[in-house]
Design brief:
This protein is α/β, with parallel strands linked by helices. The protein has two domains: 299 residues, Metal-dependent hydrolases (TIM Barrel); 95 residues, no CATH class. The chain is built from 14 helices and 13 strands.
């Protein structure tokens, strides 16, 4: 962590060159990376010595400036971790005043059990809990929202420190490999690819997926990014349409494209409910987060067809949901994007327009601000933002980047 942050800070010192950073940036210690480096990408319980090593890495990371630890229970190898393992690590995070942010284990069929799990971890460890992008995924799970709220609010009433975040869209975005059973990834990505190439194991995977998904489900999963030119035509098409294009059945299309792209396939999953999303956004313990990220070989933003949240999250809230639909008033919307997350993470002297605070400002027209990015044409900037000022320097003016790179690394 120390080397990584020092590298970013050294880049920042040359902010007038191409290598600077435009944003303020803070870092979490990633459990997936830590567990993989200590115990490998395998489905097993780490030894006591390995747990101690992970605890030391987390302690060092927070001492070096990380604001907390993130755990992606839906991803390899965190999917193999039991709650006792994570609870022990969270005790270190809690002791050092950090935050525990988590993509829960399952946001659909096992939504309730997954929320119960992270609340139990917070209760045992005393850590501050941030449930990332709270959602109900899959029509058959939309009715679970009331129970999810009950769990969170009861825990808050018990004194457990919990908050959540959410993006203003009804489609999620993750790797296409997320549809595969966890056991496929035991041993890492290379082992997963070997299993997909093995006809017998492939049939076992197929049998599991046929129990989980119907053919209609694949019409709501869109390929958003691949790495090679061979499968470029698949971008922007649903799995169903992609399978037709490549003349394969849908599961063989998924297996083959994952093999050919070395598992580097991003997909957009249309699985959520608009009314549920609005109810989540309105909760006073929910802040706005984009959950965005787009990969490319050269590091450019928006490779392939990224989720529109990459370009439109905050203008969409201010325009569509605040101004047009009056889901909440403007001060509430701004609070959910600025001072609330700063307070939550522990970022000092930012998030408010206040004397003595850093001048991080967005100057926008509340009457015209709107997102323009769509799922079909997602690389589209919003309108109505006149200026973005980062640490007192004008970084965006009249919709264009000025070249200023005054962003800073924010340490715990």
């Amino acid at each position: 962590m120390k080397g990584y942050i020092e590298r970013l800070e050294s880049v920042r010192q040359a902010h007038d060159t191409v290598g600077g950073i435009s944003l303020n940036y803070c870092q979490l210690a990633g459990h997936n990376t830590i567990r993989a480096s200590v115990a490998g990408v395998v489905d097993r319980t780490p030894s006591p010595q390995e747990i101690k090593k992970m605890e030391k890495i987390i302690e060092d990371a927070l001492n070096d400036g990380a604001v907390g630890m993130s755990v992606g229970f839906a991803y390899t190898p965190s999917c193999f971790a039991k709650k006792e393992e994570v609870s022990n690590l969270c005790k270190i995070v809690s002791k050092m005043g950090g935050i525990f942010t988590t993509h829960i284990r399952n946001e659909g069929r096992n939504l309730i059990e997954s929320i119960e799990e992270v609340i139990a971890i917070a209760k045992v460890s005393g850590v501050r809990l941030q449930i990332s992008h709270l959602k109900t995924s899959g029509k058959e799970n939309w009715g679970k929202l009331n129970r999810a709220f009950e769990l969170i609010e009861s825990a808050v009433d018990e004194g457990i420190d919990i908050a959540c975040d959410r993006y203003p869209y009804t489609a999620g975005n993750t790797g296409l490999q997320a549809v595969l059973p966890d056991w496929v990834f035991d041993g890492g990505k290379e082992k997963a690819i070997e299993r997909l190439k093995n006809n017998k194991i492939r049939e076992d995977i197929r049998s599991e997926l046929l129990k989980r998904y119907t053919s209609n489900d694949w019409d709501s999963v869109m390929i958003s990014q691949v790495v090679t030119d061979k499968n470029k035509e698949a971008e922007g098409k649903t799995v169903k349409k992609g399978a037709e294009l490549f003349k394969k059945d849908m599961l063989n299309f998924i297996f083959d494209i994952l093999i050919e792209e070395n598992m580097e396939v991003d997909a957009i999953f249309f699985s959520m409910n608009e009314d549920n999303m609005k109810r989540i956004l309105k909760k006073d313990y929910v802040m706005i987060g984009s959950d965005s990220g787009a990969r490319s070989k050269d590091g450019a933003l928006g490779a392939g067809l990224p989720h529109p949240r990459t370009f439109g999250t905050f203008p969409r809230v201010l325009g569509k949901y605040c101004r047009d639909e009056k889901l909440f008033d403007l001060p509430t919307a701004i609070y959910k994007m600025t001072s609330f997350p700063c307070q939550r993470i522990g970022i000092k002297d930012r998030g408010l327009i206040k004397e003595g605070y850093f001048a991080d400002l967005v100057i926008f027209n509340p009457d015209t601000i709107s997102d323009t990015a769509t799922y079909e044409s997602s690389k589209s900037y919003p309108v109505g933002i006149e200026y973005v000022i980062v640490n007192g320097r004008i970084t965006v003016k009249n919709g264009g980047h000025t070249g200023a790179k005054a962003g800073r690394v924010l340490r715990r």
